[in-house]
Design brief:
Layout (H helix, E strand, L loop, with lengths): L3 E6 L1 H4 L9 H16 L3 E6 L2 H8 L9 H25 L4 E6 L1 H5 L1 H16 L3 E6 L13 H11 L4 E6 L4 E2 L11 E2 L1 E2 L2 H10 L12 H13 L3 E6 L5 H6 L6 E3 L8 H9 L4 E5 L1 H10 L8 E6 L6 E5 L5 E6 L4 H7 L7 H5 L13 E3 L2
Length: about 375
Amino acid sequence: MPQTIVVKIGTSSVTQPQTASLAIANIAALAETLTELRMQEMRVILVSSGATGVGCERLNLKERPRTISLNQAVAAVGQGRLIRIYDDLFSTLRQPIAQVLLTRQELIQRTSYVNIYNTFQSLLDLGVIPIVNENDTVAVEELNFGDNDTMSALVASLVEADYLFLLTDVDRLYSADPRENPEAQPIKKVVTREELEELQSKAGKSGSQWGTGGMVTKLDAARIATGAGVKTIITNGRRPQDIHQILAGEPIGTQFEAQPRGENARKRWIAYSLVPVGKLYLDDGAVKAIRDRGKSLLAAGITKVEGDFQAGEAVALCDTEGKEIARGLVSYSSSELQQIQGYQSQEIPTILGYATAETVVHRDDMVSVL
């Protein structure tokens, strides 16, 4: 089976840092590298930032838009220019590409999620390189990806990729910002989930003027991708050709080892693509049953219901301190749960006046959050 590689290129790598004009030479090097990977029978997906930065440059704006509507308008201007450059460069290399614009809403809906998966597989089977970006013109604030690091990780999870490359403006992750602290130590390899969580707790927010990323979002992307069984690498976007050396085993960049891909595709969808719209607080007994024994959630274990949601939507399951331990698809609405929380399953028909599911969240519709 050919390997599948997702490459995310950041705004700071496709544009000039001071002017936000396109860095044509760097984009050309990226196109050559990805085409070479395709010639080696690898399946390649590119997630590209830069539309808003290019739009700003084209409209002579001096800073990134601060309102959603203006950001969407500027991104629409820049996206056409960006995809044209990609098409020109890849066409010169005789490599077909396709533009794929996504929103978080499409990944939340199971039917469209499966359709997106099938589309990606068909494109990859045809030898096409899909170029993915967020559909900024229709994305709403509550359900946008927030950054292309997160979207690239979700795409890597969706297609069950082998590798996710996060190309950025530094050569690897450091213990501090090397541009400000000369004593910052390089972090070459992250093996365990605990190591990654420690890095996340220490990370500060940073990023270029034209991007929305920074190491915080890249670490979160690494958490999503490695949790879905995808090896993740943070490396320098100005040297896309390093991807060849990394695939050959050279210790370039910061490399995050993939965790076992134990969950099925549907549970990965629940874990990474869904956005919880409410919270259920559980007593210690329910927490132990879910975390230690993989049991379903019953109404008797719920101590508090937070949010306004309907049956079938995603909720976070939290312990007594509010820490999320799992998430899943709920069988009851928030108003129903407020009536039956703390009661035994056999009492539910009497309380609600009708019979329904015995479990609030069935274990088949639940995934642990570590």
